[in-house]
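Hi D.,

Good news: the full-assembly prediction came through. Inputs first.
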Amino acid sequence: MNRHLLSAADLSRDDALLVLDTAAEMDVALAGRSIKKLPTLRGRTVVNLFFEDSTRTRTSFEVAAKRLSADVINFAAKGSSVSKGESLKDTALTLEAMGSDGVVIRHSASGAPHRLAHWIRGSVVNAGDGTHEHPTQALLDAYTIRRRTGRVEGLNIAIVGDVLHSRVARSNVLLLSTLGAEVTVVAPPTLLPVGVHSWPCAVSYDLDAVLPKSDAVMMLRVQHERMTGGFFPTVREYSRRYGLDAIRMASLPEDSIVMHPGPMNRGVEIAAEVADSVRSTIVEQVANGVSVRMAVLYLLLGGAMDGAAE
Amino acid sequence: MSGAWEIKGVRPLGGDPTTLYVEGGELVGERPAGAQSIDADGLIALPGLVDLHTHLREPGREDAETVATGTLAAALGGFTAVHAMANTDPVADVAGVVEQVWRLGEEAGHCEVRPVGAVTVGLAGKQLAELGAMADSAARVRVFSDDGKCVHDPLLMRRALEYVKAFDGVVAQHAQDPRLTENAQMNEGEWSGVLGLAGWPAVAEEAIIARDCLLAAHVGSRVHFCHVSTAGSVELVRWAKSKGWDVTAEVTPHHLFLTDDLVASYDPVFKVNPPLRTEADVTALREALADGTIDAVATDHAPHPLEDKETEWAAAAFGMTGLETALSVVAAAMVDTGLLDWAGVADRMSVRPAQIGRLPRHGQPLEPGSTANLVLVDPDVRWTVDPRITASRSRNTPFAGRELPARVIATFLRGRPTVLDGKPA
Ligand SMILES: [Zn+2]
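Then the structure:
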């Protein structure tokens, strides 16, 4: 594995499988224990550097690091260079002085983790950067798919919604295709990037045509600022054409699963009865997030199993 | 105090070796008495380079550049005249500011400074600035631009194009439709999609160029386009010229050399406006410069202090330095590739920009009677760009670490050396 996890493209197929297998071992190792802790990263320091509020992701990384016995520092950086707060570089130098072994960074600017990786010696884990990537989300999604269906390779997976602005979509297209899935992104043309036809996925504007052959459907959140940004006429029309309701869900193959990275807009991209159905993996995704992030921190900071360290 | 010089063995425009004589600020036919001698064996002489597009930052951002530091960088790059862009603070939109910039240039003495006047008050795109007053001032402004911003309002653009005819001025348009480029960060294409950066589509430049070609034709004015960056823009300019319209265009060295895949590093040293484009665009720009569709190379030298570049991409300033690397980059992109010879380089970097900017004493033939604005270039040396070694106050060169051909050995401004042995004279 690389020293950093900045993009899902950093992961070879073997790397990705190693993370998923390690996550599964973490689950097994913790399953019997009343105290859910492994001594693996004792003495190591993990900094959660969050320039953007995200209690869900920060908590997930924090729990993951603590279960590995790492020391965790939550560094909620108020503002950024954009809002004239402390610069990213100064923050990096501060972390460097504190001797952090790993930095988990969430930032509103695409590429901020790449910049950070230039300025510090420890490993950098991208926990979501702007409209670029969110590789641990893709790993936990792949892990969830594998646990539910037994495999990722050869599955047809639809990713539906605001692909243009979605870091979850970018990382998932890369990772799932690396793992051998057939990915189709589904969106109104206004919410697809200009270069999408060079991505390792198929592209469709028609959700109803894609659903009957989808083994997994991943619904993306519609951000509030897109609702008024002129990308589609109204939220109601978006929901009618690209939302997953019970009627549409019925057109899915029998064992198909429905995923959502959260937080959901119930009634917009996903209907409540779909989110709460047996097909939904939304709650498992949260739990799996901790296991996968444990695996990532372990492999990046603790040395690797099977001699796969850099 | 210009002195007398004998430049021996030099090859004017890359032609046969000869000796040039300089006296009283002019090229002369015979060796002047007491001339200092320069052994220019192997060197090429070009008319002093003329930059149509330089950000000297003074007044207002003296932390990034001053007229003195910027013009010294220009001299080291072989320039004898630069056009100082108007987006200073205060904006160069009145006679007082352009005269101040012009005077600072005269005092520094490295290079002739031709201030560019803003087209609209405060670059706000609402009301014409006092273009006539700037034209009539001591700075004798002939080029007007809201560079950094596009004169977007079509009626205002029409009026500006018409109005400057009264004093033989030209509007230099920064072609960028503002609505199509809101929050734009890089070229819209395959890389913007992958990198999750908001796209700056080619059409946002091309739509304005098409409109302004039509406007200029309609009112019978000349128009100049700053830093054209796309293959589509080249086609439009070629079409306008084929109609006989008085349209000119410039291209930057970086758009002749660098492509948008460099943004994958997220290093803001590659952040520039208009953005780096694709390989196909670079090819089209080189061909257009070679065949004369694009008239001139202009640096768009845009110095920024380190703290405005050592940030995440979205927070960083747009712009690259270019004065000290321009000639070498053009040599790499155009001469080494066989697209232009040195006479062609002289035409695109001196003769034509001097014509566009209405600078009679620049871009002249290297013959007796011409003003002695000239540069001596070693075409055979290769050098590696080190951003720490620069006369500019800023270091934001995208060419850091690259090995480039050709080096400026000496620059003469009105017969007086500003650079000798590659160093400030
Ligand atoms: Zn410009």
